[in-house]
Specification:
There is one protein chain. The chain is mainly alpha-helical. It is built from ten helices and seven strands. A hairpin with a 4-residue loop joins strand 1 and strand 2. Helix 2 crosses helix 5, helix 3 crosses helix 5 and helix 6 crosses helix 10. The chain is globular, with a radius of gyration of 21 Å. The termini are far apart.
């Protein structure tokens, strides 16, 4: 009887070890796959289009976005994304890159808000100007250390609201952002879920967006990432550029401070 129990225990341990090895092996293979794709990342196509859109004279006023201040002065893009979201006095609100771009398209180029946000997420031949502009501007911060400050009262308020939303449970499944992203070692199928409550996880999770999604053939921004998380939680659709979207981004971006920004990246 003792011998049978020993064999059973050994088999269970062997199965667990094999399962752990298989999971580790799969994760390693996915990492290698991403590394291979990163060389010649298709996001570069979005970046090239975004740079062209930035310099093009467009809209009812027929001007370019080169006068747009995204945080470091009119027309300065180098390193700007690593300090966003931030408070902008001319709009009297905290903005991320995407909402700031829409603001400039409206105020500088004369687009209506409806026209500027008509296609914030592209699909197939219907490409999004916002995604392209985001791709280029974020690429200009690659290697720059994240430094999202909370100096203004509205920046502090946004962080606190974002933290509250991160842990808020609701919807038909009683989910929260923290359901998937507040515990180390979690995964969905072969997808690792970074623990965004820890510094290392927050840095890894935030600094690799925007990203080219191989499964979709599209470059996706951080606003899209949040929108998709809300969808998966079965929450009401997240409104593009809403206060809660900026708050969540502020919370996660500030938690990623100290890490070098490394996007646009590539994901499954």
């Amino acid at each position: 009887m003792v011998e049978h129990k020993s064999v059973a225990v050994a088999l269970v341990m062997m199965a667990s070890a094999c399962n752990a090895w298989a999971q580790g092996s799969a994760v390693d293979e996915i990492a290698r796959y991403r590394a291979q794709l990163q060389d010649g990342n298709p996001a570069e196509l979005w970046e090239a289009r975004g740079e062209d859109l930035w310099k093009q004279k467009r809209g009812p006023k027929n001007v370019s976005l080169e006068g747009c201040n995204i945080g470091k002065g009119a027309g300065v893009v180098k390193g700007a994304y690593a300090e966003l979201p931030r408070y902008f006095a001319d709009a009297d609100r905290v903005m991320d890159l995407e909402t700031r771009l829409v603001h400039c398209m409206v105020t500088l180029q004369g687009f209506s808000y409806a026209d500027a946000t008509r296609r914030v997420f592209g699909s197939g031949s219907n490409r999004s100007d916002i995604e392209a502009l985001t791709a280029w501007i974020t690429a200009e911060s690659k290697g720059v250390v994240m430094n999202v400050r909370l100096n203004h009262d509205k920046e502090k308020e946004a962080y606190k609201l974002g933290e509250k939303m991160f842990f808020f449970r609701g919807g038909p499944h009683d989910f929260a952002c923290s359901t998937c992203h507040a515990e180390s070692g979690k995964r969905i199928r072969l997808q690792d879920l970074p623990n965004l409550t820890e510094k290392k996880g927050a840095q890894l999770g935030y600094t690799t967006w925007p990203a080219y999604r191989v499964s979709q053939g599209e470059l996706r921004t951080f606003q899209w990432r949040l929108n998709d998380c809300f969808r998966q939680q079965r929450f009401p659709e997240l409104v593009f550029g809403s206060e809660i979207s900026i708050a969540l981004t502020t919370f996660l971006a500030n938690n990623a401070n100290g890490a070098a920004f490394n996007a646009p990246a590539i994901k499954r």
